[in-house]
From TrEMBL:
Record GO biological process: lysine biosynthetic process via diaminopimelate; proteolysis
Domain Peptidase M20 dimerisation: residue ranges: 196-339
Keyword Metal-binding attached: yes
An annotated GO cellular component: cytosol
Pfam family for this entry, one: M20_dimer
Source organism superkingdom: Bacteria
Molecular function as annotated in GO: metal ion binding; peptidase activity; succinyl-diaminopimelate desuccinylase activity
Name of this chain's protein: Acetylornithine deacetylase succinyl-diaminopimelate desuccinylase-like protein
Alphabetic keyword roster: Hydrolase, Metal-binding, Protease
Keyword Metal-binding: yes
Record InterPro entries: Cyt/Met_Dipeptidase (IPR051458), Peptidase_M20 (IPR002933), Peptidase_M20_dimer (IPR011650)
Amino acid sequence: MEETLEKYALEHINDYADLIKFKSISAQNLELPETANYLAQIFSELGAVCVKKLGAKTAPIVFAEFNGNDPTKTILFYHHYDVQPPEPLEKWDSEPFEPTIHEGKLFARGASDNKGELIARLLIVKYFQAHGGLPVNVKFFVEGQEEIGSPQIEEIVTQNKALLKADACIWEGGGKNNSDNYQIVGGMRGISVFDVEVRTADVDLHSSLASYAENAAWRLIRGLATLRDDQGHVLVEGFYDDIEPLSDQEIKAVKNSDFDLEKVKKRAGLRKTISQDPKFELVNQPTLTINGLDAGYQGSGIKTVIPHLAKAKLDCRLSPSQDPKKIATLIQAHFNKHGFADLKVHYRLGELGFRSEMNDPFVALVLKEATKIYGKDTKYLPNSAGGGPAEIFGKTLKLPILAFGVTYAGSQVHSPNEHIRLADFGQGTQLLGEILTAYGNN
């Protein structure tokens, strides 16, 4: 294929800009059915032979199927149309839901995660439909609740195995790593999300009573401090027991990766780190982190009280072999054992991790095509540091899953001024077109 798809993608990047304008925030249950309706219409206009909405009407999953020139081969695209809230709004240089192109970049909430990636793949279908047809069958699975843990996915995938049958799955996106080398990712870590709560009284008390009254905020802080040391090592008994070691092939891939901590520190203004070479930790070691704390008076002015209630939100990123619910249970057992039984763990959600087999032929094909475009510094990572519902697809549908796309490590995902670089958008779209063509010719 000549490099016309890259040019086409850049010329048509605004064709589906309306997708970005939907405030499809799953955490706030905003504009999810409206976004799904828009996507269903677009898929129909592109010539899909099947378009369906699956699951809850409040946040429908949109499925679409396109026939290709080789009817014996099928690629499944996984995406999500929901986004994170845009706050803090004052940190944005442009309106978060108004796509803005500036200095070779497209800025908007969802520009990277995940609407920009989805637009690239819509343009691939549009391009091929106008240039002889798609090389292989293509299916889209686009959900609207990824940012809140994909609560429908297991049931929907299990119920629709025949509908979703494919030979390989290309995940929602990715692209260039923090060293600006293109990276193919074969899976993701798991996640366990939970709250911790403690009550020390029925009501807030006057702060003068601190001579004898326990403070829920202090109690929570002391309990949380027993979970981890200053180097990030989790002190919970059994926390590391279920980690399966990487294979020799996977170890080699991680060693060959080029994570640059100094670049990350500079880009984020990161003032303190707990590891000097976290490459292996990012792939196969679990973490425990505090997402937020809530206790007492936090309004303007002064209010001298002793909080009676304190809460914390935490998550653990897990090795693909670890069970999310078990991790939350271990943390409650830790509190009980160490004199903090009054700290209660409330499990919220979890996702198992997943890792594709590195020796799968589809992995070799994708790496070959990526190297043609991005050169010998193209990398393969067994799994990402982040999470997602890939395990449900891999286990249920029995197919390899690879994540790659049109973004880069500096895209500021989930942050103000989220963006993609137009050059990456063009190149990444070209790559996926080359992969579909090569797979059809394989």
